[in-house]
Amino acid sequence: MSRRVLRILVMGSLLALFASLATAQDKLTRIRIAYPSGGICCLALYGAIQWKIFEEHGLQVDMIQIRSQVGNMAMMAGEIQYFNGVGPASVSATLRGMQSRGVWFASDQLIYSLTARPEFQNLRDLRGKKIGVTGLGGTSHVALQIALEASGENPKNFVYVVLGAAQMLPALETGTVEAAMFSPPFDFYAKKKKFRDVLDVGSKVKMPLGGLTTMVSTMRNRPDEVRRVVRSLQLAKQEVLRSKEKATAVILKFLQVDKEAAEDTYEALKKTVSGSGVPTREGMDLIMKSLHAAGQFTDRKVAFEEIADDRIAREVAKELGYRVP
């Protein structure tokens, strides 16, 4: 066989391969999933992308980082299809008229701590001082308010400053804020710099962290797509628990931390990321209690079905072998 014929055959094979790849890519359903901040609440999302679990389920996912309030408006406008979170901000938006529901839980427990500059010994010292949170009305803000009340403090005695998760530590170092809310991996670096934990918020507030919220219309019009998204996230969560090596690699890539911080983050994560992913009445009740404690919707008795829909997550859990009632 001449070299010229061989080159033609090789080129033909490559063109056929590229064409098949392009066709496969065209068949993927493209969706947008927003997430509020870079942190462990979104690890299943990162994993499902990194390990191509979404692609295996026929999905091409674009991640968009925006704050909860902006994400709610974007989802109502159809700019995004899903929000990676179920918490006070998403539930509050639903109760204010947004036709959305929490459809999947990422974890069963918060991992937050309030960390202050070394000169502040306790909560009393922080009265009237600035505290960094990732969003007003979001999980970290509402959880902090509840934890402050549980510790005998009036949340109104503190000033809240909205910052991105990656901005918290620099703001604390420069004195832009006197304290800040941290979750892994950022709490690891705060401790290394000798900043002081003054309140274990996670121990004071029991509510889910992370999850998935989508519009009722999406569930009604594209139930198979929602099922594939939920299944992908749940499989990624399983893989996180199964493989420390793979999970640590995802933490390193997406959270851009060093290996020591990634391993510390994984150990903290293992304690909270569990369960079938099915939204629970207890979990949603805890979110409602957090909103009530923050003075919101205190005159409303809210049914589970008004703010969550567990049907698809329940179906997925059964398919994956979980025991669900």
Structure notes:
The chain is an alpha/beta fold and 325 residues long. Helix content is 49%, strand content 14%. The protein is built from 16 helices and ten strands. Strands 2-1-3-10-4 form a five-stranded mixed beta sheet, sandwiched between helices. Strands 7-6-8-5-9 form a five-stranded mixed beta sheet, sandwiched between helices. Strand 6, helix 6 and strand 7 form a beta-alpha-beta unit. Helix 2 crosses helix 11, helix 11 crosses helix 16 and helix 12 packs across helix 13. About 3% of the residues have low confidence.
Short description:
By secondary structure, this protein is an alpha/beta fold. The chain contains 16 helices and ten strands. It is globular and about 55 Å long.
Features:
14% strand, five-stranded mixed beta sheet, D-Maltodextrin-Binding Protein, domain 2, 16 helices, alpha/beta
